[in-house]
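Researcher: I'm preparing a figure for a lab meeting and need a structural model of a single chain. I don't have an experimental structure, so a prediction will have to do for now. The sequence is pasted below. Please return the structure as tokens so I can convert it later.
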Amino acid sequence: MSSCTAQASLPSPPPHMIRFTTDKSELDLALIHGFLSQHSTWARGISRPLVERAIEHSLCFGGFVEQSQVAFARVVSDHATFAYLADVFVLPAHRGRGYGKLITLAALSHPELQGLRRFMLATSSAHGLYAQFGFASPAHPDSLMERYFPTLYQDSPKA
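Model: Understood. Here is the structure written out token by token.
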């Protein structure tokens, strides 16, 4: 997937077209870093170099209205058995138009992410959104473990 266009359910002609791309050269790194470090609940304080490294090693999806990026998501995967959906956001001024659903669908539909045994994510507030795509609480939560450092970005010196 290099680029595709999706239309939110609006009357014709649609005033808001969103285009998705996995071309990292089109991503607005300042916007992504700004949102994650200042406005997200999960990556507050993250440094720009760390965001750039995460993007470099992930399959990323940028959502654009006209020439402006308004949405982002990234997937960490081996492209064979497992994937993790992370850092999904839509800018506040563009919410309520279905862009969150559309970028999630773009990620889940990507050809390199088909036939995976497990696709995971973490969310504190969007369970309803992701349930529409088949995500559910782990069937066997006792089999999952994690190492979690919730204040790592705030505690680390800024690069």
